[in-house]
Amino acid sequence: MSAVRLGIVSDTHGLVRPELAKALKGVHRILHLGDVGGGGVLKELEEIAPVHAVCGNVDVSGAAAELPETDVLIYAGHYLYLLHDLKQLSLNPAVAKFSVVLSGHTHKPLIEKRRGVLYLNPGSCGPRRFLLPVTCAMLRLKEGAEPEVEIITLLESE
Predict the structure, then answer these.
(1) What is the DSSP code (8-state) at residue 16?
(2) Domains defined for the chain, CATH in brackets
(3) 101-119, pLDDT tens digit by residue?
(4) pLDDT tens-digit series, residues 2-15
(5) d(CA 28, CA 150)
(6) Any idea what the Cα angle at residue 119 is, between residues 19 and 104, rounded to 5°?
(7) pTM
(8) What is the DSSP secondary-structure string of 43-81?
(9) Which of 32, 49, 3 is nearest to 104 (CA)?
(10) Residue 65, phi-psi category: left (phi > 0), alpha (psi -120 to 50), beta (remainder)
C-alpha cells in the first residue's frame, strides 16, 4: 500500500494564501485544525483536496461553528486525534493507542514525540501573528511504518 499524504493546516482566520495551494498540491486530504474563520476558507481548500476540519475558538458563527470540537480519523492503520487547542486534550493518547495528535491554536509549529505518540502543530497559515513564520505541515502515513512529518514554511518570519 502506498503512503497517504495529508496536508495539515490551522488558524487560517479567513485567509487562504496562494502559496498554500502549491504546498499542498497532490495531498489525499487536508486536515484543518480550527480557527477557520469566514470568507469561504473550507470551499477554497476543497479546490485543492477534500477537507476534514474541527472548529476553533474563533469559529463561533457560520459553517465553521457547526464543525466538531474534536475528531478521530484513521488512515493507513494510524489513529489520529484532532483538536484545536492541545490544552483541551482530555484523554491519554498513548493509552488510547493514537499514533498522532494534531492541534493548532498557538500559531507555533511543533513536532514532538511523547510516549510513542507524535504531536503535531502545523503553525498558522493565515494572517501572520507576532513574528512567527507562516506554515503548514505534510503528514505521510504508511501502514506498519512510523508517521513522517514535515513543516512547510510559506513565508519566513520577519
Answers:
(1) -
(2) 4-155 (3.60.21.10)
(3) 999 999 999 999 999 999 9
(4) 799 999 999 999 99
(5) 16
(6) 50
(7) 0.96
(8) HHHHTTS-EEE---TT--STGGGGS-SEEEEEETTEEEE
(9) 32
(10) alpha
